From TrEMBL:
<keyword id="KW-0813">Transport</keyword>
<feature type="region of interest" description="Disordered">
    <location>
        <begin position="427"/>
        <end position="468"/>
    </location>
</feature>
<dbReference type="Pfam" id="PF00514">
    <property type="entry name" value="Arm"/>
</dbReference>
<feature type="compositionally biased region" description="Polar residues">
    <location>
        <begin position="438"/>
        <end position="453"/>
    </location>
</feature>
<dbReference type="InterPro" id="IPR016024">
    <property type="entry name" value="ARM-type_fold"/>
</dbReference>
<dbReference type="InterPro" id="IPR011989">
    <property type="entry name" value="ARM-like"/>
</dbReference>
<protein>
    <recommendedName>
        <fullName>Importin subunit alpha</fullName>
    </recommendedName>
</protein>
<comment type="similarity">
    <text>Belongs to the importin alpha family.</text>
</comment>
<keyword id="KW-0653">Protein transport</keyword>
<keyword id="KW-0677">Repeat</keyword>
<feature type="repeat" description="ARM">
    <location>
        <begin position="90"/>
        <end position="132"/>
    </location>
</feature>
<dbReference type="InterPro" id="IPR024931">
    <property type="entry name" value="Importin_alpha"/>
</dbReference>
<dbReference type="Pfam" id="PF16186">
    <property type="entry name" value="Arm_3"/>
</dbReference>
<dbReference type="InterPro" id="IPR000225">
    <property type="entry name" value="Armadillo"/>
</dbReference>
<comment type="function">
    <text>Binds specifically and directly to substrates containing either a simple or bipartite NLS motif. Promotes docking of import substrates to the nuclear envelope.</text>
</comment>
<dbReference type="GO" id="GO:0015031">
    <property type="term" value="P:protein transport"/>
</dbReference>
<comment type="subunit">
    <text>Forms a complex with importin subunit beta-1.</text>
</comment>
Length: 468
């Protein structure tokens, strides 16, 4: 059959069996009629056993229109439930080869198809990596790229970076491109570039340092003030991944002003998932050095955290609880005085009721550090025999919560609870266990003091008030 007739036959076949919209760039999630109509058409194509034929058409270098039509069909099938069949049809090496086509439309369609394959199972991405897709794909990023093509290429690259990358994949060339595209004015390009940073920092060893070396940090911090939530979410998730690095890497975030941005995010009406990630970043920073805890304090973040602990949904409360517990665990005496003056004791005591053993234990460590600071302060005052922090915990119902933890199924929590009870409330605990004292074990008659009723421990004059 002459080439022109071959092309015409292929196009007629497509017209008959592929009545679809232009190629899609995602996996259909809806159960709508369009989804089933597309899957029905795909099944017809698969049953006709023509996938290898379409893969073969991709190699017809003298017929760019035929190459593009074949890639278009494969792109749609790769967006269905049958992506693996496309990946295993012999199309992948030809699609990778098409990234070097002199025809811009063919290159764009090949990128689109590869992006849909990459968006499926890890096994599909592995097939792409096996055929060396990364370098040819990176070569598509040129200064003269049109925005629609750049969007597709960045989206395809982000799909490739999802999950753990093979050891042979070089991350630095990817980050060099991403570090430029996070300055894009196009929101879709910007979002996918930030998702790529997020994926890399969670799926590749040493990628956090590679990302910092590529210079992504200043712009990511700037983007925390972006108006679009579709951009803000990947930005803050990427920064959360970076904040899980070592103290030196976290310090880079601090020096680029991330804490002042987070203070604004926590103090305003942002979506729940944004606030949750913001609390996570603060929590990671608060696990660092005392200087880094001080940076959290200086950024006026403690008060918003306490408000979240008192008023927000449970999952956000939990992240805020981690942040406050970590800060209390590593704080100096002066920093503890500040935390207490902001009203951290009652919400920390409430954390003791959470069903998360790791969080409860960290909270106990924070309370231990606070009580130790209160004991040291007591010794510094000649006539004082009362630890003010222990007294406040008693009056606010925190002692009852500590005693309840004696029944917890965790040896380390039980051990720390007993240490605190015996060190700071031995007399109260002994009295509550004495059966001769009326009401000593009758918890139903006790009234828990709320934060509005209980006086806060006196704040030291040496600690400056937090800026509102």
């Amino acid at each position: 059959m002459p080439p022109s007739q071959s092309l015409k036959a292929c196009q007629n076949w497509l017209t008959k069996y592929v009545q679809m919209t232009p190629p899609v760039s995602w996996k259909p999630q809806s159960s709508s009629g369009n989804f089933f109509q597309m899957n029905s058409t795909v099944i017809k194509i698969i049953r006709a056993d023509v996938l290898p034929r379409f893969a073969e058409f991709l190699s017809r270098t003298g017929l760019p229109q035929l190459q593009m039509e074949a890639a278009w069909v494969l792109t749609n099938i790769a967006a269905s439930d049958y992506t693996l069949l496309v990946a295993e049809s012999g199309a992948v090496p030809r699609l990778v080869e098409l990234l070097g086509s002199p025809n811009a439309n063919v290159r764009h369609q090949a990128i689109w198809c590869l992006g849909n394959i990459a968006a499926d199972l890890p096994s599909c991405r592995d097939i792409l990596f096996d055929h060396g897709v990364v370098t040819p794909l990176l070569s598509q990023f040129r200064e003269d790229m049109k925005i629609p093509v750049l969007r597709t290429a960045m989206w395809a690259l982000s799909n490739l970076c999802f999950g753990k990358l093979p050891a042979e994949v070089q991350v630095k060339p990817i980050l060099e491109i991403v570090s430029q595209l996070i300055h894009s004015a196009d929101e879709k390009i910007l979002a996918d570039a930030c998702w790529t940073v997020y994926y890399l920092c969670g799926g590749v060893d040493d990628a956090i340092q590679d990302a910092l070396d590529a210079g992504v940090c200043p712009q990511l911090v700037n983007l925390l003030m972006h108006a679009s939530s579709s951009v803000l979410l990947p930005v803050i998730m990427a920064l959360a991944r970076i904040s899980a690095g070592d103290d030196a890497q976290v310090q880079v975030l601090i020096e680029n002003g991330i804490l002042n941005c987070l203070a604004q995010l926590l103090g305003r009406n942002y979506p729940k998932n944004i606030k949750k990630q913001a609390c996570l970043i603060v929590s990671n920073i608060a696990t660092g050095s005392k200087d880094q805890i001080q940076a959290v304090i200086d950024a006026s973040i403690i008060s918003p955290l306490i408000v979240i602990l008192k008023t927000s949904e449970t999952d956000i409360k939990k992240e805020a609880a981690w942040a406050l517990s970590n800060a209390a665990s590593g704080a100096s005496s002066e920093q503890i005085q500040y935390l207490v003056s902001r009203g951290c004791l009652e919400p920390l005591c409430n954390v003791l009721t959470y069903q998360d053993p790791d969080l409860v234990y960290t909270c106990l460590e924070g309370l231990e550090n606070i009580l130790q600071a209160g004991e040291a302060g007591k010794k510094g005052e000649e006539e004082s025999e009362t630890n003010p922090y222990a007294q406040f915990i008693l009056e606010s119902g925190g002692l009852d919560k500590l005693e309840d933890l004696q029944d917890v199924n965790s040896e380390r929590i039980y051990g720390l609870v007993m240490k605190l009870l015996q060190s700071y409330w031995e007399e109260e605990v002994s009295e509550s266990d004495d059966p001769n004292i009326p009401g000593s074990n009758d918890s139903a008659d006790s009234v828990e003091t709320t934060s509005e009723d209980a006086a806060q421990p006196p704040a030291p004059a040496s600690v400056a008030d937090e800026a509102e």
